[in-house]
Amino acid sequence: KQWYQRRVLAMANGARQQGRYVSNTVRNPMLPMTELIMNQEPLSSNILNTANPQEQKQMLGEKLYPIIQAAQPELAGKITGMLLEMENSEILHMLEDCTSLNSKVIEAVAVLQAHQQNLADQQKIAI
User: The pTM is what?
Assistant: First the structure.
């Protein structure tokens, strides 16, 4: 477990692993996220409060999706949906803090991968 935690931390920081730079996959989604967050127009709680709850989630999703898509194109929709289940204030914080968003994306990918593994294991048992 410690090995895994060190590896995830090193990869998330863009460290060199086994003589190669880690690519922008689940292991290193920071680079595109940082750039996209910095280039986005901020979404404030005042703007959100003028909308109904459904519109608020839509607005937050429209901000989150392109950032997540840059790091995880195949899982962006699922990850965005997972993150939209959080409180709006937490999502706003993640949109301002790429480290926080990065850790939530890594966590969401881990949950999705565990779910996929669980499905695969169930299929093996069924056969």
Answer: 0.66
